[in-house]
Write a structure and sequence with these properties.
Oligomer: single chain
Number of helices: 5
Order of helices and strands: HEEEEEHEHHEEEEEEHEE
Number of domains: 1
Structural class: alpha+beta
Strand content: 35-45%
CATH superfamily: Electron Transport, Fmn-binding Protein, Chain A
Radius of gyration: 17 Å
CATH class: Mainly Beta
Largest sheet: 7 strands, antiparallel
CATH topology: Pnp Oxidase, Chain A
Number of strands: 14
């Protein structure tokens, strides 16, 4: 068995190892709004829920050449954002929004997605997503090492939107949702075999 010290690896090498070993990861498709009113959208797979009470989620957004990405900057300036769950139906368009655009251009408009009014936040949601988590900024942390930095965003969920066809007895029917997972490199994966295990008494 290989033993590897992360300090012996470059940022890219650590990234490649982590993203190919910590799998599968859910993909957060996040819409945010700039102070000038430009709607931004981008996917992030360093994402998960933190707590049910209060309902909190987290997303890590690495900086590029020391500069915050549009999503981080928008969330910190406006204080609101919407997380959409990526599924088999929208994954191609979600991936297309990862293109590099100037901050005054909207990825939503560029790839042909439809923005709609959210219920409790001012940032629009994306119609093509069947699960949407409207959030306000709860906390922001910065992790730095060398010339690398990451913005760690904690959001408080203030509203859930779920398609009626997915919502059953207070839960989401995962098989009908068909969520997509992020693997290493360019790889994604659909929902695989589902099984249940009872917790020991």
């Amino acid at each position: 068995m290989a033993i590897i010290d992360p300090k012996d690896l470059s940022k890219k090498e650590n990234y490649r190892f982590l993203t190919s070993s910590v799998t599968p990861r859910p993909v957060a498709f996040i819409s945010s709004m700039s102070e000038k009113g430009v709607l931004n959208a981008a996917p992030f797979s360093y994402f998960n829920v933190i707590s049910a009470q209060p309902p909190l989620l987290s997303v890590s957004i690495g900086r590029k050449n020391g500069q915050q990405k549009d999503t981080s900057r928008n969330i910190l300036q406006v204080g609101e954002f919407v997380v959409h769950i990526t599924d088999e139906e929208n994954v191609k368009q979600v991936n297309d929004t990862s293109m590099n655009l100037p901050s005054d251009q909207s990825e939503v408009e560029k790839v042909g997605l439809e923005p709609i009014v959210s219920s409790k936040v001012g940032v629009p949601s994306i119609k093509e997503s069947r699960i949407r988590l409207e959030c306000t900024l709860e906390k922001h942390l910065v992790f730095e090492e060398g010339d690398s930095a990451t913005d760690f965003i904690i959001g408080r969920i203030v509203s859930y939107y779920v398609d009626d066809q997915l919502y059953e007895d207070g839960t989401v029917n995962t098989k009908k949702l068909k969520p997509i997972a992020r693997l290493g490199g360019k790889q994604y994966a659909p929902l695989g075999k589902i099984f249940e295990l009872d917790r020991p008494e």
